[in-house]
Amino acid sequence: MARIAYLDHSFHRTTRSTGFLPEILQRHGHAVDLFWDDAWQGGKPVQWAAVAGHDVVIMFQSYCSPEAAQFRLQHPNVIYIPMLDQFGIWQGPRFNLSDFWEPFQGSKVINFSNALHAMTTAFGIASHFVRYYQPVAGLPACPTEGLHGFFWLRRELDLPWKVIRRLISGCRFDSFHIHLATDPGFSAPTLPPQEDIDKHRITTSKWFEDKAELNAVIARANVYFAPRLDEGIGQSFLEAMARGQCVVASNHGTMNEYILPGVNGLLYDPRNPRPLDFARATELGQQARIGAVEGRALWEQSETNLVRFILAPSRDLYVNRYQHPGL
Q: Which pLDDT score, from 0 to 100, does residue 47 have?
């Protein structure tokens, strides 16, 4: 049994979107100690000394500041799990990433995005790529008649209603629900004009005491509009695909790593949004659910290899593959 330190961004403590990995490790008989990094909102960061004594150190998006140039000089088994959205790749090159990746040279990375997997290996770092899918069993079936939309307006500046309005301008929805609850630090949402409310029979909400109430509202839709322009893993749209909803998303990661437009969902260019064809929305949603079922089976089959990668000492993965000074 290994004793594993699991350091995570404290925002995930509320969303519980990353809890699947500790659950897997515990199910395989390993002890997992959770450490929540609160530095992003002015709290205290997790210090390296708090996790250094564990057999394995996993750092999900957040990470300790290394006391040496690379983590490999301090510990034989350090794993970093980056999220695609933390790099803002869709905005174009913004900075040189060599300095970012330098501490992880000679350590290991787990990637849930193929784009990040390619980036990581390009920097000569051992990477394990695996595509995550949510459980499908128990999710309610979505409507198969008419067009019923759902959009969580989370980031007004990135993805406002006017973009959604452009995407659906060529048709009329039988119902449309907008959840007006923006992410921390983002401006208040702008309501749709009255003509849109009347045309698409728009209803709104701001807050639900019980998440089950929100899920019940989402389940009444068969077209789900992804609320962000890029995702780390994308738990919300993955759940929508598992429900059998037609997901409409920007042509950015990780959505475009799961959705093939016109086959199991719809993608658009957020810089030039154009009206989409929703005539086959029900069929696209059904194909999304089929893919989610198959994807979940593959995810469960990959579990053993994932745990094996986590437990393997970093050095073993570099023999005859990557060469770094000091290895």
A: 93
